[in-house]
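Weekly structure sync, notes
Attendees: PL (lead), two postdocs, one rotation student
Agenda item 3: pending single-chain targets
PL asked that the sequence for the first pending target be pasted directly into the notes so everyone works from the same version. It is reproduced below exactly as submitted, 240 residues in total.
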Amino acid sequence: MDEIFRIQQYAAKCTFFLPPFEVQQARRTVAKLQELASTEKAKLCPRKKFKFRKRLGRRPKGSEEEKNKQSLDESKNLMDKKESLDTMYTISDMEGKTLTIQQKDLTKQNLVLMQNLKSSKITVLTKTQTVRLVDLKDCTIFAGPVAGPIYVQNCSRCTLVLSCRQLRTHDTKDCRFFLYIASNPIIENCEGIGVASSSSLPEGIRKLLPKEFEVSESGKNLWDKVNDFNWLKQQKSPNW
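Predicted structure, written out during the meeting:
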């Protein structure tokens, strides 16, 4: 039970990083593990009231084994996600720092996590697969090109210059985004968001960007096609 509790804690922590579908899948996995543990505990330490359990309808042969195997497989998938997060190149718990990350600094997975940063400038102008920005305050971030998604969670008063395939922003306020993006940016529980094309940056800053920064398969920059999940009206959202 202690191990399941630790997995539950880790799954809760991962809600900052994972898409909603994977969060729900992780929660279902933990719930099944708890149910499995309770079942096994009941077998080892049965209560008297369960003495005549055999009078109830029999379970199909092999159903218990299949259920156990499925729960163990799902547990392994959850731990695989933990291992993936553990192999990310992580920048965390810094204040007032200026860092430039190069390709040689990254892991083979090209995954980057920036977490709990204050008043810092971080530059990752090299090809990566995924970038996660969590709990940033008063920071300036350059990241791109990112072949996959960029996740932004609980950030405030930041300037973010990003080039990516997908952008998901949650619980963030008073941030400025300069984007080159191949799909509609997504925001949820956000306010005070400023969005502009990366092409609107001052010429001196644009010269620092790699040639691949403003390149996408479609050849289009959808920076202004923001989807606000908290605003379903036809009028423009007041949150960005």
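Discussion points:
- The two ends are 45 Å apart (CA to CA).
- Residues 78-83 have pLDDT under 50 and may be disordered.
Action: rotation student to compare against the earlier draft before next sync.
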